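Ligand: fe (ii) ion. Inputs:
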Amino acid sequence: MNQNSSNPKKQIFMFRIQITILTLILMILITLTSCKQVPEAHAASDKCRLVWNDDPTSTITIIWDQLAGKQPAVFYGKKDFGRKYWKYKNQQTPARKLIDYYLMNTCYAKLENLEPDQTYYFVIKDSVGVSNRFYFLTAPDKPKAFTFITGGDTKSVSPSLESGRASNTMVAKLRPLFVLFNGDFTSGNGTRPDYWHRWLKDWDSLTTTQDGRKIPIVPVHGNHENGNKSILNKIFDAPFQHGDSTNLYYSFSFGDKFFHVIVLNSEIDVGGSQREWLKADLEDHKDFCFKIAGYHKPFRPHTSKKKDNDYQYDQWAELFYDFGLDLAIEADSHMHKITYPLKPSNDEYSHHGFVRDDEKGTLFIGEGSWGAKHRVNDDDKPWTFQSGSFNQIKWIHVWPEGVDQPAFMEIFTVITSQYDEALNQTFFVDEVESLTEENVFKIPENINLYLDSNSRKSVKYPFYLNK
Ligand SMILES: [Fe+2]
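Predicted complex:
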């Protein structure tokens, strides 16, 4: 007879010993896991930028220059785990890499299947280390108030370089949902790697908020990119049409028929296939509450130094009006302008091919001067509502229809720097209050907003709201 198997007391004792050993092993494992250390070394990712180039309610592209190391990946999720990369729920390796192009090893990680109107936290990890923890917002899939910033024209050398940096810093202070950058990123023709490196490093360091929010850019091709007409696809993974990366124009929407953004290209044929694409895109999105378009060259510049763009007017102006484009955002001339809502016309009351139409017209705003030295605004038209000469960005608040208000946009012109007659620069950024995620519609303390002759600090659209 086997005494061991027949002795209940001994069996219970052995069972308890086994349980104790298992518990100890489990505790050691838990301790080892919780002791996992975040590497002190930072990842070798540099010049990080986030881009909206698809449906922004569910996707975002994170792009960076991999300076060294191997196996870079983005670790991300809706919960903030700081730099503890292993705790993030999701991981994405770059599906596209461009090695040694413009002296950069560019990695493109597209995050997909994100949830709308959410905050996502992320780090980039590689064999060298782990980046700082950053975060971004996805666009809402229902009509919801938001802000965005638009402007264009930066330069790579002083003193315009410093003006551009001031405008970049303002982006971080105002923390918009996205930035539509309206072309002309660097001096020259867009082919100098050192100028691009400088632009990307400035964008990375200056437009990121103090608490680590990275604001996605929507890039537009300008004439200072004409030395390489696919450069924005290489730098920002910007979309293109007809299988040709020099056909760099695209559109996207969010908010369930609330907001549609069209990016056009004034530096290739604006007629032909681009006009056909624009017509089809406007037709497909005609029921949207707001439709806006960004492109570099204005139809009618507000400085005598720049010529009218008649062919572009002939190809696009009628389509804008016929399909109810609300806002046309222009750049290139380096100044501030906002028109009355305009309808293309060549009747006896028209000037430069436009007449005022407050009810159905398109509002034209611009014209560049994010950083480039501002030109004199010496070519106003009878339908010009405001113009001025200073470095500026447009900060636009977008509101859906409410109980007692229509859907509307409110456009603030934020002056970021200015030259006096002796060419001394003054900056208007350092003293400006930084907004928080909870108050992104607040007018910050010490912000220098353009005031017109009626002390009006913003322009609303629909235009009848400017009473
Ligand atoms: Fe330009």
